[in-house]
Specification:
Length: 234
């Protein structure tokens, strides 16, 4: 019997916390499902969770589960490390006395990529947020063999944050596929000028600029651009 191909993985990171990583990941998962791609999302580490009869659960992880087009997995498989306080993951882990173990995350990635064609791994905070001693998203992406998609929160300061993030991702030896603009401040002054500057200065192409509200067509276009970019970069 032929061995099933290992699903590709993309780590979705952002220029900061609150820039729309979950919004983009969920929209992409739904668009991929509409395109007939079996896709799944993984939230390896989440801080900020509610107590439920099934234990602590994070709303971002639940949204990823609901948007998947691949066969469902248990909550713990999608979000192996879940902490209650909405603080930096390594601080939440220390407070809970449950440190993040890289081997556990590696196993979670491999389980989540089974029986699907594409795995989206959603980060927490930005690229340089630590998860454990000498371990963060660069190491996680490297261990998973994942490419990287950068979500740029379009607000004052985004040029600096986006350039520093892109430089760090590439310096860490990861393949940055592209970036997507998310208008978290729709009335941002000089939005068009900021976008033009980002397009000129970032080392990878813009794969899409999302509208302020739900728009299936925009996410379908983003998914198509991401798929094409992956193929071109292979």
């Amino acid at each position: 019997m032929a061995e099933t191909a290992r699903a590709a993985a993309i780590l979705v990171t952002g220029t900061d916390t609150g820039v729309g990583k979950t919004w983009v990941s969920v929209g992409l998962l739904r668009a991929l499902g509409r395109a007939g791609v079996r896709a799944r999302g993984l939230k390896p580490v989440a801080s900020g969770a509610e107590s439920t009869p099934e234990g602590l659960q994070n709303e971002d992880a639940l949204a990823l589960m609901a948007a998947a087009s691949a066969a469902p997995l248990p909550y713990a498989a999608i979000n192996p490390y879940c902490y209650a306080p909405p603080i930096a993951p390594h601080l939440a882990a220390a407070a809970a006395g449950r440190p993040v173990a890289p081997a556990v995350l590696a196993a979670a990635v491999e389980q989540a990529r089974r029986d699907c064609e594409l795995l989206l791994i959603e980060g927490a905070g930005g690229w340089r947020v630590p998860l454990a001693a000498d371990y963060g998203f660069p190491e996680l992406a490297r261990d998973a063999g994942a490419d990287v998609l950068l979500v740029v929160g379009l607000r004052l300061g985004c040029i600096n944050h986006a350039r520093l993030s892109a430089e760090a991702i590439q310096r860490d030896g990861l393949r940055l596929l592209g970036w997507v603009g998310n208008p978290i401040e729709p009335d941002m002054p000089a939005l068009a000028g900021n976008l033009a500057t980002l397009e000129a200065l970032l080392p990878v192409p813009c794969l899409g600029v999302l509208p302020a509200g739900p728009d299936d067509a925009a996410f379908d276009a983003l998914a198509a651009a991401l798929t094409a970019r992956r193929g071109a970069a292979t």
